[in-house]
Amino acid sequence: MGASVQQSVIRVLIADHHPLFRQGIQSLFLREAEIDIVDEAVDGSDAIIKAKQHRPDVVLIDAAMPGISSFEAARSIRYYSPETRVLFLAVSDDEECSRLAMEAGASGYLLKNSPPAQIVAAVRQVSRGFSDLTPSGLSRLVEDLQALARANLRSTRSTLLTPREQEILKLFAEGGTARKIAADLQLSIKTVEAHKFNLMRKLDIHNRAELIDFAIQQRIVPAPVGDSDSMGI
Is 63 helix (H, G, I), strand (E, B) or coil? Predict the structure, then answer.
């Protein structure tokens, strides 16, 4: 199933007794080139058998499947395939579920109604050895990943700035106002504002604080100058 397996691909087994949920997870991971669904399981016993057969990197397992307990299934999976990481799927953020999951050797659990980005992030993280992932922790993780992605995108887009836009970016980051920058560069305020608008659009920047952070990250300026809250951009 899914993409052809390569060394860097994360091999996932889905264990859930709801066909529609399994199909939904399949559809989600089909958009992720580095994640491959190796098989599906409909209950705990089936999950054990297929985990032994495929030895996947990650098993996504429903916390409340019929038949053998999902937690007992997780213990067996970890026993027969210690390198396999187990990630529970729960319908609610329940402390007892979390405790039982961790006692069974799981790397974490997440809610079935989690945003797709959280589910994908959780699978990636547990495949890398992270554990004790919870819904609240995943929310912070996704926020951090999204912030990193925005920073990387801005860094790439910075190469699209014209020399004049780069110059004006530096002056704004150093605390200059549009009026002062216009006077220093012998430009009209309207022209400076137009350059400012273009560089902010290209970098997806919305205020001076973000502009200063970006300028520091790119080593355009050594440190923020002035109070970013008191100076509008």
Answer: coil
Work out the angle at residue 180's Cα, subtended by the Cα atoms of residues 179 and 181, and round it to the nearest 5 degrees.
Answer: 95
Domain extents in the chain? 10-145, 161-217
Q: Which amino acid is at 38?
A: V
Spatial CA neighbour of 172 closest among 182, 163, 162, 160: 182
Predicted TM-score (pTM) of the model is 0.55
Residue 177 has pLDDT above 70, yes or no: yes
Task: Judge residue 2's burial from the number of C-beta atoms within 10 Å of its C-beta, 0-12 exposed, 13-18 middle, 19 or more buried.
Answer: middle
* Yes or no: domain 10-145 corresponds to CATH 3.10.180.10: no
**What is the Cβ-side half-sphere exposure of residue 38, based on CA atoms within 13 angstroms?**
19
Q: What are phi and psi of 49, to 5 degrees?
A: -60, -45
Fold category of 161-217 in CATH: Arc Repressor Mutant, subunit A (1.10.10)
Task: Name the residue with tokens 């919305």.
Answer: 206
Tell whether the model's pLDDT for residue 156 goes beyond 70: no
